[in-house]
């Protein structure tokens, strides 16, 4: 008898072959799958860091096509930079251009210029998210409990001596 098991790519947002195609390496036997898998993991980590708190992560199957596209662009861009370096412009396959395009899509998702939807067209972002970058201290710092870093600030960066 055999037992069911998940494949090695379970939970990934795109395949090694999709990244190879995006980078133009589908016929390059010198680029190993291990390197592509490493770049795919880096790309997914970047996606998670950009969208943490806005979407429930990791994304589950079926993965939104926009997330698949971002993952392909980032991973292929990282792969091209690793193989050719940042100083080489190889036209439409330019790794930095792919990364920049993916980063712009992540920015748009983060500030909700774009939203991810499920198969019914419903926004899948976490309820109550503002959809913008934020930081602390902010307007509620002075009234927050001191056990979490709140209280009136003793000085400001804008203070001059």
Report on the structure:
With 161 residues, the protein is mainly α. It contains 4 helices and no strands. α1 packs across α3, α2 crosses α3 (65-84) and α3 (65-84) runs antiparallel to α4. 23% of the residues are buried. Mean pLDDT is 81; it is low at 3-8 and 129-133.
Helix and strand arrangement:
Elements: H1 16-23, H2 33-51, H3 65-84, H4 95-110
The helical percent reads: 25-40%
User: Per the principal axes of the C-alpha atoms, what is the gross shape?
Assistant: elongated
Specify the structural class.
Answer: mainly alpha
Oligomeric category: single chain
Q: SSE string, helix = H, strand = E?
A: HHHH
The description of the largest β-sheet is: none
**DSSP helix count?**
4
Low-confidence stretches: 3-8, 129-133
Strand content: under 5%
- Please give the number of β-strands: 0
Calculate Rg over CA atoms: 20 Å
What does the average pLDDT come to? Answer: 81
């Amino acid at each position: 008898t055999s037992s069911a098991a998940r494949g090695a790519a379970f939970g990934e947002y795109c395949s090694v072959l999709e990244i190879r195609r995006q980078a133009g390496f589908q016929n390059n036997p010198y680029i190993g799958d291990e390197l592509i898998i490493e770049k795919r993991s880096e790309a997914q980590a970047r996606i998670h860091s950009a969208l943490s708190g806005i979407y429930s992560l990791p994304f589950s199957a079926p993965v939104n096509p926009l997330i698949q596209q971002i993952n392909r662009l980032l991973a292929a861009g990282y792969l091209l930079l690793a193989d050719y370096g940042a100083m080489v412009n190889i036209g439409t396959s330019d790794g930095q251009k792919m990364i920049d395009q993916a980063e712009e899509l992540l920015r748009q998702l983060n500030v909700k210029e774009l939203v991810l939807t499920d198969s019914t067209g419903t926004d899948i972002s976490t309820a109550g998210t503002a959809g913008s970058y934020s930081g602390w201290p902010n307007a509620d710092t002075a009234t927050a409990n001191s056990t979490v870093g709140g209280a009136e600030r003793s000085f400001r960066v804008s203070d001059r001596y």
